[in-house]
Amino acid sequence: MSTRRLTGSANDPHIRRRYRAEKRFKAYCIGAVGIAFAIIVAFFTDIISQGYTAFWQHQVQVTLEYNDRSARLGQFALDSDMRDIASRGATRSIPLEMEDNPDLMGTTDQRWVPVKAEIDQYLKHGHDLPAELRQQVDALADSGRIQSAFNTRFFTTGDSKLPELAGIFSAAVGTLYVLGITLVFAFPIGVMSAVYLEEFAPDNKLTQTIEVNINNLAAVPSIIFGLLGLALFINFFGVPRSSALAGGLTLGLMTLPIIIISTRAALRAVPDPIRQGAFAMGCSRWQVVRDHVLPSSLPGILTGTIIGLAQAMGETAPLIIVGMIAYIPEAPSGIFESATVLPAQVFTWASEPQQAYVEKTAAGIMVLLAVLLTLNATAVFLRRKFERRW
Amino acid sequence: MSVGETTLILLAGLIPLGYAGFFLGRRKAMATQADGTRLHSRPQQYGWYSVVSMAVPAIGVAFAASLLNLLGWIALPSELVLAMTLITAAAGFAYGLMAIRPTLRARNTLDRLIRWLLLGAALISIMTTLAIVLSVIFEAMRFFREVSVWEFITGTVWSPGDSFLEAAGRGDEVSEGGGGVFGSVPLFAGTFMVTAIAMAVALPIGLLSAIFMSEYASLKTRGVVKPILETLAGIPTVVYGFFAAITVTPIVVDIAGFFGLDASYSNILSPGIVMGIMIIPFISSLSDDVINSIPQSLREGAFALGTTRSETIRNVVVPAALPGVISAFLLGVSRALGETMIVVMAAGVRPNLTWNPLEDMTTVTVNIVYSLTGDQSFDSPQTLSAFALGLVLFIVTLTLNIISTVMVRRFKQQYD
């Protein structure tokens, strides 16, 4: 019988079916990873392709005339046909300049100023412009009076209602303030809690409650921390709404469990003989922790703290609840002043209807992602470099 | 005198006293030691002892006074508080210096104090939870005084009144009456819809990726794949929101249009998909950990019976890892329920009870955000409704987390 079923051999149709199923299943698994990778690539490509144009901006060369009329309204320093092209914000400060420096009266000055956002968008992406204006712009571009230059303004100014002038500076300063408060609040308390739980705590009901509680706290949705910040810091303690202090404390409470959990892991990695050796030399428990356990677990603690801060830096929802989406054109100069942070600035821009804000949003996201990736890479580097294997 | 000034004067008094206490205490101890007497502790520990006996009672007094002030029971004038604090500090200073003698166990006292300090820090996390529960319940109670619980839980119409929609820029959709109706069913329907879509995306991709990483990939491949997948977890949610609103939504609308379907530009499908992408790394990392901790002997046993790799995975590994996978799934669900920015930016603000994911729906978190960013007074039911919604959200996510923790613990006990 030549067609006899060869049970168990490679020609057994049953076995071949099973092998096909095996291949299929493996293909599913690889496909899943492939899909995830494709999503990541698509995501970054999408953000970068939308955002990179914002780092360049078109400027127009104009002649500013300092005369009686421009002393009243900066717009009049421009030729009437330039007023439709140059950004309104570029001439806004002229009356003030003339007040500070009366010698300017009667002189002229040639400089490059940003063009209006619509014109910038037309030159970059060919968005619609009225025909007459388009001819004017094309003519200027042909004669070299419109040029594209690196947009330093994006990094040096705050938010603006004119997209061509909007930048991330005040949001970046706000982020520094908020993260500073988060760090000052969450780092000492987090490390102290972890030291207590790992090195001092007896194994009793209270300790177990604290442990369960910290794990649960780490999984509470961030918006709930926003509600807490609103009710506790703003309504009860009277911290000013929208201030960096309110935001920083709220994020501090949120980051606390992350720091505690990672610090505990770092403390646990220090082997017991180190402690026993120190005890044998007559150290008290605190001396053991201060002089031996903490120094050897410091890289792990710092890594966890950086990761916690990176997470806090990307957080938006709780900050919206405590009012940190105010319009902030000037960088805040203290922790009680209204401030905004990078992700909140991204959110504000994303809700603006003008097309020009889309590239601003994407560019803001690129800066945010660059900082976050750097932070996370630093954390990984620290761990690799200083981690001790015992 | 402002709070800041009072604090500054207080510090200006306490810091020099502290320095003086440390050096005087240490000098006294060293002088005692000099004539050959054996001390119980090191001289600097006596120094610290006098600092502590000066500062702890003084700070206690100042803290108690500010607590009384904050709770509004007694408002003491700040000059009085200052005087009381400084007198206490001076008394403690004198006591600390006098108490120093060779038999004083300064080191033990310091250790005990540090222990209490650390315990205090550890209790802050408990107090945070308590504060969340209390503040949310307190504000939610004020809401339920005006709106019945039954209406809130079972009502199918959510229309908090004119100001809410105006704040959201949709003043033209104001409903009749305008007094405010708070039936939360449409919001929870939206939240569950978006969660279901997210998990439908995240679970298969996350779980299969985890299986690939732990069962098929070489160590080297795994070392590359895992961190790349985890970058997804580090992306801020506001970025996902932008991605959903600007990129995914138009694609979804186009695809739906290709099949002749009419999709809204704030459909719930696109935030759902993007939220799923966000959750992939949670599912894959947690499942990967769990699958990795399944003992190799289980797999070898299955191979010995002649099963192929995929049969081993499906019939042995995954069933054994199931509690862990379920707990990863529950954590993912809890993330999705509480996720805010993606839905705020990409989903609608119109409460809508529907089964069609191409229509716009709104969620619990969207309404929390919009009712707290409007211009209403803090006492209005619109604002307070945020806390009622927050309370439900907190309870649901907390329950999911606890179930998930318990399942993981059971699983670990089984194989450790």
From TrEMBL, chain A:
UniProt-listed SUPFAM superfamilies: MetI-like
GO term, biological process aspect, one: phosphate ion transmembrane transport
Ranges that cross the membrane: 25-45, 168-197, 217-238, 244-267, 306-328, 362-382
InterPro entries (UniProt xref): DUF3333, MetI-like, MetI-like_sf, Phosphate_PstA
Signal peptide: none
Location of the protein in the cell: Cell inner membrane; Cell membrane
NCBIfam families hit by this protein: 3a0107s02c (TIGR00974)
Classification via PANTHER family: PHOSPHATE TRANSPORT SYSTEM PERMEASE PROTEIN PSTA (PTHR43470:SF5), PHOSPHATE TRANSPORT SYSTEM PERMEASE PROTEIN PSTA-RELATED (PTHR43470)
Protein name per Swiss-Prot or TrEMBL: Phosphate transport system permease protein PstA
Gene that this sequence comes from: pstA
TrEMBL record, chain B:
Segments passing through the bilayer: 6-25, 46-74, 80-104, 116-138, 187-212, 232-253, 273-291, 312-333, 386-408
GO biological process: phosphate ion transport
Compartments where found: Cell inner membrane; Cell membrane
Location, primary (coarse class): membrane
Keyword terms, alphabetized: Cell inner membrane, Cell membrane, Membrane, Phosphate transport, Transmembrane, Transmembrane helix, Transport
Entry function: Part of the binding-protein-dependent transport system for phosphate; probably responsible for the translocation of the substrate across the membrane.
PANTHER family in alphabetical order: PHOSPHATE TRANSPORT SYSTEM PERMEASE, PHOSPHATE TRANSPORT SYSTEM PERMEASE PROTEIN
Protein name, per record: Phosphate transport system permease protein
Organism: Halovibrio salipaludis
Species lineage: Bacteria, Pseudomonadati, Pseudomonadota, Gammaproteobacteria, Oceanospirillales
